Amino acid sequence: MIRSAPLALALACALATSPSYAAQDKPTPSAKELLDASKPAEWRTPDPANLLYMQLPAGRVVIELAPDFTPLHAQNIRTLVSQHYFDGLAIVRVQDNFVTQWDDPDGDDGGDKAKMHPLGKAKATLPPEFTRAIDPKQPWTPLPDGDIYAPQVGFSEGFPVARDPASGKEWLVQCYGMVGVGRDVPPDSGNGNALYAVIGQAPRRLDHNLAVAGRVLQGMQYLSALPRGTGPMGFYEKAGERTPILSVKLASELPAAEREQIQVLRTGSPTFAALIDAARHGHNTFYPTPVGKVGICDIHAPVRVDGKPL
Predict the structure, then answer these.
(1) Is 52 helix (H, G, I), strand (E, B) or coil?
(2) Which of the two ends of the chain, N or C, has the fewest CB atoms closer than 10 A to its terminal CB?
(3) Are 65 and 80 in contact (CB under 8 A)?
(4) pLDDT value for 20
């Protein structure tokens, strides 16, 4: 793949401060070692207005919204959460190697969702927000090895992103842990009242066909380890199989003492560049041969809570 000079320059800048491990005989530092050596300034604290706390019986799931990419959906989801729309709903679908979806179980049983759980001040339809225009001011850390689904891939503010310079568009990528917006056939039918998290191999065929609203920062185990639904597309066939949602709250609506002390590694930082380099060239006694490449969904922006990486 031939890269443009600006992209090649950006990649060189992103990786310049990271040591390359390709030609080293000693084992590559582990991710833990690299993170332990990171600087405080390399970590960012997400805006509490963009953090959702979804309380399940087994524990808390923390989701960071992506308003720079899907601002209308982020705002609609905030409105729904502030109105306690999701409280008492359920995880209605767990499809193996695909997604876990939460929604109104009455709606999925053929009921009238709008009557059972009114949207209140939230909008019933939204422009799709499957893609957005490339913003040159937005942080961008490119990956060096290309992608078969998009001309360019990289990271922006911790989120995996694909780009097409020819169309001037970019979009969030459907990687493990990303949170998307369920919809019906009309492109504007996804308003954020039905959400899913990717729990399997990255379903990249969904890229720029569904809006992606954010990603799970903490608690993926409570979504990925649920029993698989036995109905079509992984829907639960019996009400008793569903996992109830006890509550969904915005972190900004909670006292500071009740918020998670959560941080995300900046994807433009030297430590993240070192993690990319180690993933490409990493080797040790168990993995003696570096793979030499890395895919967009093979790298995740690390998260730490109370100063301890998850």
Answers:
(1) strand
(2) N
(3) no
(4) 57
Helix or strand (DSSP H, E) at 79:
helix 71-82
DSSP string, 107-155: HHTT--HHHHS--TTS-S-----S-EE--TTS--EE-TT--SSSSEEEE
Specify the pTM. Answer: 0.89
Domain span including residue 92: 47-261
Count the domains in the chain.
Answer: 1
Token pair 């290309």: residue:
146
Say if residues 93 and 241 touch (Cβ distance below 8 Å).
no
Question: Do the Cβ atoms of 92 and 246 come closer than 8 Å?
Answer: no
**Looking at the DSSP assignment, which residues form a beta bridge with residue 155?**
141, 160
Flag whether 27 is in a domain: no
Residue 192 structure tokens: 């954020």
CA distance 43 to 268: 10
Enter the tokens of residue 252.
């900004």
Distance CA 282, CA 309 (A): 20
Look up the CATH number of the domain holding residue 102: 2.40.100.10
Question: Is the residue at 284 inside a domain?
Answer: no
Q: Please state, in angstroms and as integers, the Cα–Cα distance from residue 7 to each residue in 3, 10, 89, 92, 164, following that order.
A: 6, 5, 45, 42, 12
The CA radius of gyration of the chain, in Å to the nearest whole number, is 20
Residues ≥6 apart with Cβ < 8 Å to 187:
128, 130
Asked whether residue 245 is assigned to any structural domain, the reply reads yes
| Domain presence at residue 107 | yes
